[in-house]
Amino acid sequence: MNPILIEAGPLTLRAYTAWLGGGLLLALGVIAWRGEQHAPGAATRWLDAALAALAAGVVGARLLHVALEWDYFADRLGEIPRVWLGGLAWHGGVLLALPVALVVVRRRRVPLAAWTDALAIAWPLGMLAAWMGCRTAGCAYGYEVRTLADRPAWMVAELPDVYGIVAPRLDVQLAGAVLSGALLALMLLLTWRGWLSGLRFWLLLALSGLGFSLLGFFRADPAAMLLDRRADQVFDLMILLLGTAGACLVWIEQRRAAPARWHAEETGDEADSGDRSDQPEAG
């Protein structure tokens, strides 16, 4: 189930696409805004890295979905590139988007720590939009309950599944949206206070993996199995480990760089020790 919002000739806009597209556009706008704040004229280069990561993310998410559902796609190879038909595993998107982003950030001379700090604000916006899109389209739905009276009102609702069957269910999609909103609020607080610069995105990634893996225990939508668990939960835990590892590596690097930074400040060499990543490119 994915309600049609607009249908004009060959153009069809469905609810999930509208939610996700709006969230991604807002996220890209945030990255451009933060880039311009960091250095006038830098927004274009920051967006280049974001768009490259987004393109790689779509490819990675589709490839992981196809791999997990290979029994279906083995006889339907022509459907593999048809992303618009649905079927993206966001974990695959992250795993491919990150290395691509790192390469583009380096080539376009964008400061990595500042860019990932901007991504830490943009990422929850995309997650929030995806969960709300699922709530209207019937994906990532929760288990049925006997009646709404059995649970608190905030926990259950009459919701459709992917086949359009409406029933009283645990409102997992709303829980995912609330979690995304809470992570967005946390990232905004850290940004406002100037805390954990360079670490924010990796912390966000770890918390997202942890939170979504817990929500997976309440999901009833069909899913491939891996290690006797829902495959998405297994990959959620991989994202948790990736975020934790990334945070540890960045923290270690910051600790190593601190003495050199302190020495440069003491000797008056701040200009030589600064990050020139956002200076205008030659030519």
Characteristic terms for this protein:
283 residues, mainly alpha, two-stranded antiparallel sheet, 6 strands, 63% helix
Give the SSE map.
Layout lengths: L3 E5 L2 E4 H24 L4 H26 L1 H4 L16 H18 L4 H26 L18 E5 L5 E5 L1 H22 L6 H16 L9 E2 L2 E2 H37 L2 H4 L10
Query: What form results from the Cα inertia axes?
Result: globular
Mean pLDDT: 90
- What is the structural class? mainly alpha
The fraction of residues in strands falls at 5-15%
Main sheet characteristics:
2 strands, antiparallel
Residue windows where pLDDT falls under 50 for at least 5 positions = 270-274
Number of helices: 9
Task: State Rg.
Answer: 21 Å
Strand runs, count = 6
User: What string gives the helices and strands in order?
Assistant: EEHHHHHEEHHEEHH
Folded structure, characterized:
Strand 3 and strand 4 (166-170) form a beta hairpin. The termini are far apart. The relative contact order is 0.11. Helix 2 packs antiparallel against helix 4 and helix 6 (172-193) runs antiparallel to helix 7 (200-215). This protein has one domain. By secondary structure, it is mostly helical. The longest helix has 37 residues, at 231-267. It has helices spanning 15-38, 43-68, 70-73, 90-107, 112-137, 172-193, 200-215, 231-267, 270-273, and strands at 4-8, 11-14, 156-160, 166-170, 225-226, 229-230.
